[in-house]
Specification:
4 helices; four-stranded antiparallel beta sheet; alpha+beta; four-stranded mixed beta sheet; Rieske Iron-sulfur Protein
Length: 248
């Protein structure tokens, strides 16, 4: 069985953490860049549960799908938001590194993907339960102006009530999350979707450190930190998680 980078889990986590610190310590150089590039990961073809390339017509509008990228155990949301999303939202990570959201891909530029690991306390979908998910119907929340508002088409975490706007790169709308959800870079080539990288503030090192013991049981040892592979299976949230918790 392959070990994570560095030979074991601790070395792997140290490597991820040191990379994040180096980026944060870039300070003025990082802030001077108009757009931080995506962190490249091996390209993975998105396939359906039958192993066939996922086609745009197979994606229901307004319903969350789940896949795992760039590692075997790191969950992501795939969404067709039903409208062209040109991108361009100016965002930044918790450490102040700026980046520009790429927008949607696909024939209608309506398909987006984000890490499903909440930026606050790393709440994420599991086979047993998910406190984070996409809400097409309006939910209530307190906005930045401390006013009660209702809005649909959001990603909501019911653990601590963080709310993200997937039409603006998963920017934080409400709650304690210190940064947007990390965005998954997608490419649409020859009628099929590919995951090619991650941009924004990824939380993979913290995720592995915090949940590594449980993930070792689920993924037969250190396999949870292995790359996702050449293909990623996409399935509806309802088919992956037994209990989808809703709030607001």
């Amino acid at each position: 069985m392959n070990k994570p980078i560095g030979g074991d889990r601790r070395d792997f986590i140290k490597l991820c953490s040191s990379a994040g610190v180096a980026l944060a310590c870039g300070g003025a150089a990082a802030l001077a860049a108009p757009q931080a590039p995506a962190q490249a990961f091996p390209r993975a073809l998105l396939v359906d549960t039958q192993g066939e390339p996922l086609r745009p017509e197979a994606l229901p509008s307004g319903q969350a799908q789940i896949f795992f990228y760039p590692y075997r155990s790191t969950p992501c949301f795939l969404l067709d938001l039903g409208e062209a999303l040109p991108g361009g939202a100016e965002l930044q990570t918790e450490t102040g590194v700026p980046y520009r959201w790429q927008g949607g891909v696909g024939p209608n530029r309506s398909v987006v993907a984000f890490s499903a690991i909440c930026a606050h306390k790393l709440t994420h979908p599991s086979p047993m339960v998910s406190f984070i998910g996409y809400r097409e119907q309006p939910v209530g929340f307190v906005n930045r102006a401390q006013q009660v508002e209702r809005r649909g088409h959001v990603i909501q975490c019911c653990s601590e009530h963080s709310l993200y706007d997937p039409k603006r790169g998963a920017a934080v709308i409400s709650g304690p999350a210190p940064q947007p959800l990390a965005a998954i870079e997608l490419a649409f080539v020859d009628g099929a979707f590919h995951a090619t990288g991650v941009y924004g503030g990824d939380l993979f090192a913290r995720y592995f450190e915090q949940f590594g013991d449980r993930l070792q049981l689920e993924y037969a040892g250190d396999g949870y930190a292995e790359p996702a592979g050449e293909q990623c299976v996409v399935q509806p949230m309802e088919g992956y998680t037994r209990n989808l918790i809703r709030c607001g």
